[in-house]
Design a protein that fits this description.
The chain is α/β, with parallel strands linked by helices. Helices cover 38% and strands 13% of the residues. It has a single domain, classed as TIM Barrel.
């Protein structure tokens, strides 16, 4: 049995990770008391390539069934504490696995895909990414896809999307949308961090934002202090309340630097897109010292406590808000 840390008192949900998955990481999830993780299983992969990623995950579920399990519903996620395991839910960071076929959304939903970003940085068939100069908003196909995702209980994720596209997704969706991994731009003006306008419209529609621990989204990057990160959460809560905020760490633990090129370039460019905040190097930035792995969620809990959040508020931010969102969102619209 893996002994868990102080974070056992909370149902911890991390709504985005893309780690280099291994038994070490699965054990660290249990050491950190992490109950549910939204795992990226596709960036630029097409349908068949994403199926191969699912095959690999089936091996993980079979080989490490004492640590993790595939959760396809809200009720299965809720059982994570009872099972003393980490529930894994799947999502796409790009719509490439549906190719140009809206019918594949139903197929993917039945295979357990719970989230899909409408774009990853660039213009897609569905929406405009945050790196584009011209934001034309949600496309004709995008509106159709939003409706189909609502029907199937698949959550719209606008983490890498531009402003107009994000606001239109909130407007057009019959269900609350998510920004699973980003921070407010008033704290740090990264291209992917979100404006106060987006945050307010998101909260008014009962959507969720997951605060990111990826250094390019943090003030002072790798040197960001846990106190500053928690103060950012507090400032956001002052603006939109505490019911629609959570954690989406964007942790890419143990990934080789070569993976960054796949994330940013896929097959769409021959030149290197070094990405935001990393013009000198295409590699991963170092994580802050206080958040290196899934064992470190206790540092966020302690930080939130020290700046004055109540125990109930901390529990909500660390996972219960996401649970409430899942309960509503994983049913059809």
């Amino acid at each position: 049995m893996v002994k868990q840390e102080k974070s056992d008192n909370h149902f911890i949900v991390d709504c985005l990770q893309y780690a280099n998955w291994s038994p070490k990481i699965f054990k660290e999830m249990r050491l950190g008391g992490v109950n549910c993780i939204h795992v990226t299983i596709a960036y630029h992969e097409n349908f068949r390539e994403t199926v191969l990623n699912l095959e690999k995950w089936n091996e993980h579920f079979n080989n490490y069934s004492d640590l993790i399990f595939h959760a396809k519903s809200f009720d299965e996620i809720r059982q994570a504490k009872k099972f003393d395991k980490t529930a894994i839910i799947f999502g796409f960071q790009n719509p490439s696995p549906i190719e140009d076929d809206i019918g594949l959304i139903e197929i993917w939903s039945k295979l357990g895909i719970k989230f899909m970003q409408l774009t990853y940085n660039n213009q897609s068939l569905l929406a405009t990414g945050c790196y584009e100069k011209n934001d034309t908003g949600i496309t004709r196909m995008g509106r159709e896809v939003i409706g189909e995702m609502n029907r199937m209980g698949m959550v719209i994720d606008m983490s890498h999307s531009a402003e107009k596209s994000t606001l239109e997704a909130i407007e057009f969706s019959a269900m609350p949308i998510s920004i699973t991994h980003a921070n407010p731009s008033f704290w740090h003006p990264a291209l992917r961090n979100k404006s106060e306008t987006v945050l307010k419209e998101l909260s008014k529609s009962n959507g969720m934002i997951g605060f990111s621990l990826y250094p390019h989204h943090l003030k002072n990057g790798t040197d960001c202090k846990v106190t500053d990160f928690c103060k950012m959460i507090a400032k956001t809560a002052e603006k939109i309340g505490t019911d629609n905020i959570g954690i989406g760490s964007d942790l890419c633990q143990d990934q080789p630097d070569s993976v960054v090129e796949w994330m940013r370039n896929g097959r769409w460019a021959k030149t290197r897109d070094f990405g935001e905040g990393s013009s000198d190097s295409p590699g991963f930035p170092d994580q802050p010292s206080w958040f290196q792995s899934n064992k470190d969620f206790k540092n966020i809990i302690d930080g939130l406590d020290k700046i004055g959040f109540s125990k109930v508020e901390i529990s909500n931010i660390m996972g219960k808000n996401w649970l409430n969102f899942f309960k509503t969102s994983f049913s059809s619209g």
